[in-house]
Hints:
By secondary structure, the protein is of the alpha/beta class. It has helices at 40-46, 64-67, 70-79, 94-99, 108-114, 118-121, 184-189, 204-213, 223-232, 251-257, 270-278; strands spanning 2-7, 21-25, 31-34, 54-58, 87-90, 130-133, 137-141, 145-151, 163-169, 172-176, 195-199, 238-241, 286-288, 293-296. The chain has a single domain (2-296), classed as Metallo-beta-lactamase, Chain A, CATH 3.60.15. The protein has eleven helices and 14 strands. It is globular, with a radius of gyration of 19 Å.
Amino acid sequence: MKITMLGTGAALPDPDRAQSAILLTLDNGRNYLFDCGEGATRQMVRANIDPASVGFVFLTHLHHDHICDYPYFVISSWMLNKTGAPLVLGPKGTKHFVDHLFGQGAYHADFQARSAYPARQQNLEAAQPEVREVSPGVVYEDGHVKISVDWVEHIPRDICECFGVRVEAEGKVIAFSGDTAPCEAMVRLAQGADLLIHECTFPESFIAHRAKSGVGTYSHTSPTDLGKIASRARAKSLVATHFGHFDSTSPVLKRAAAKHLPVELMGPHLMDEIVVDIRKHYTGPLRLAHDLMRIDL
């Protein structure tokens, strides 16, 4: 199997990173998408993957940087002659989100116009997703993969549930954190994983700054804590991802981030700090994610 890191950034528009999206492709060609942040569909095309071949999407939570490309993905797949209804799984609220997008939602005019064409009428179901809201446990099996999830700790659960994921396929285990503060659920989900893909949104100093300032959530996993999680889970390899623009040199991003990040510290040099802090507790294979990174298992 291969994993393609379609997007490795966080909430702000970043010239160097798309938002959160990870594509798992089995040796038999079946595709499974986890999160669908800005740029996910375009990145599939860049990676020579037809979006119409992706029939499964799991949304870890409903923050915009994990879902905002979803309508573009569905409509693009429809236009690329996808057949059958796409399946999307996610937390409570996913059905509300999807129901307000297509036939009678935000893209109603687009749907009405395109569905007038004979070619689009042949696969109307491609723009009519099947939605399943899930709870902790095994949420999907199809003879090729087994997917289990558990709640992780990112934003209050009464606002939105947030899930971490464990995928078992082709004799391998892949765990993905979504967004989360350090929690026991991720240690369990990642236990013995061949690959742990885990958020590492800010360096230690940036998390401390956000906690003190009270601007934005600081419920993310620090590099030091990520090393502890990977070590305790005995993960065979680790990919850190979902970087919160702290490495950017973009003047636009620095101006935008001035109220909630210590922008005077921003820059690519912080990636070295990330590695040093992870390595305090984890000694296994480690990679820092970048867009379109390919990982073969």
